[in-house]
Amino acid sequence: MIDLRSDTVTLPTPEMRQAMAAASVGDDVYGEDPSVKSLEARTAELLGKEDAVYVPSGTMSNQIALRSHTEPGDMAIMDRSAHMVIKEGGGAAAWSGVTVWRVSGEDGTFGPDAITEALGVRHPFDAPHHAPLPRLVCVEQTHNEGGGVVWSQQALTSVTDAARANGLATHMDGARLWHAAAASGIEERVHAAPFDTVSVCFSKGLGAPVGSALAGRRALIDRARRFKQMMGGGLRQAGILAAAALHALEHHRVRLADDVRRARTFAEALADIEGVAVDLARVQSNIVRFRLTSMPAGDFALRCHTEGVHMLPSGRYGMRAVMHLGIADADLTAALEVVRRVLGSR
Ligand SMILES: *Cc1c(COP(=O)(O)O)cnc(C)c1O
Fold first, then answer.
1. What is the band of 335 on the pLDDT scale with cuts at 50, 70, 90?
2. Which residues' Cβ are closer than 6 Å to ligand 1?
3. Ligand 1: centre distance to CA 289 (Å)
4. Are residue 191 and residue 260 in the same domain, yes or no?
5. Which of 2, 104, 240, 345 could form a disulfide linkage to 274, CB 3.0–4.6 angstroms apart?
6. 111 and 129 part of one domain
7. In this structure, is residue 5 part of a structural domain?
8. Mean pLDDT across the stretch 211-240?
């Protein structure tokens, strides 16, 4: 099976398993796991932040960030298709009691005007305590639902400047910040610099089996550690898992550029197939979104699956294919053959 559903399907390599088996470990709830400490230090260094905390998932990382920045009754501003809005089980309401202001951005990106709009216009006769208290702006880099679109550095700073000018904190959901860096050629720490907190995943394209991290100022990460414990994220000999993430940072981060290149090549080949429409300008990292013009996505996905290519439908005619560690050039050639066959093109 050529599995293009997601970059979460990657499996640990033999070398990664060796690193896990050899990891020195301790009880991380007591702060005694050397591998977790190394991973946290290395992540903080790569992201240019004072400290980082290792957590079981990107969802927990985003949720403890949200909880750390806010109090119940506050408001957080983010795109309506953000992972934090549509894929975290309603956590913003459940864990933080936060009102989410949903921006209708473009492929998940938005400008400073969206913040101005969310804050509204103040009038001399406003009741002072009517509105939820605006506190935080969240940005997703790359934007998953937007098709892996990469925020330019200028777009990032124009939003964080507007946030700061209005006294708002900023959080980056950088689950695929590694891919943004591979695509833009701009270091992760530069993309991360204007944000108070940054969440990154080790379990996506980097290929570790488990884990994410939240980075930021020491005092804020300290507060986040409390919420990690509260949500049940305290792990004991977590170094076995942290060792996989360290291995991934060391050995797999460099190859993310291959995924970006492969997404481009795959998208360009798809664009030449009758029955497929691709907006090549939106193919910016390791995700390829395309539309079918002659077959519903569900039927197409099922038939491709029968022929050994697994891709996810999205909406009635939309499809998604994601490049990752487990996909080689030959897989893509084979996948394109299947797509052509299923669509009866040639
Ligand atoms: C995958 C992902 C997350 C976190 O997902 P987990 O499965 O909880 O690790 C967060 N944000 C984005 C944009 C993601 O793609």
1. very high
2. 57-59, 62, 83, 140, 144, 173, 175, 201, 203-204, 212
3. 18
4. no
5. 345
6. yes
7. no
8. 98
Residue 6, token pair as written in the block: 């997601």
Whether residues 199 and 261 fall in one domain: no
Domain that holds residue 205: 14-251
Q: Is 160 in contact with 194 (CB distance < 8 Å)?
A: yes
* Ligand 1 mean position, distance from CA 147 (Å): 14
Helix, strand or coil, per DSSP, at residue 311: coil
Cα dihedral 43→47→51→54 (10° resolution): -40
Residue 345: what pLDDT? 66
**243 and 279 in one domain?**
no
Residue 6 is assigned to a structural domain of this protein:
no
89: left (phi over 0), alpha (psi -120 to 50) or beta: left
Q: Give 342 Cα–ligand 1 centroid separation in angstroms.
A: 31
* CA–CA separation, 335 and 93 (whole Å): 41
| Residue 58: CATH number of its domain | 3.40.640.10
The per-residue pLDDT for range 291-332, each reduced to its tens digit, is 999 999 999 999 999 999 999 999 999 999 999 999 999 999
- Mean pLDDT, the chain, rounded, equals 97
Residue with the smallest CA separation from ligand 1 atom 6 is 58
Q: How many domains does the chain have?
A: 2
User: Ligand 1 centroid to 107 CA: how many Å?
Assistant: 17
Question: Going by CA atoms, what residue is nearest to atom 5 of ligand 1?
Answer: 58
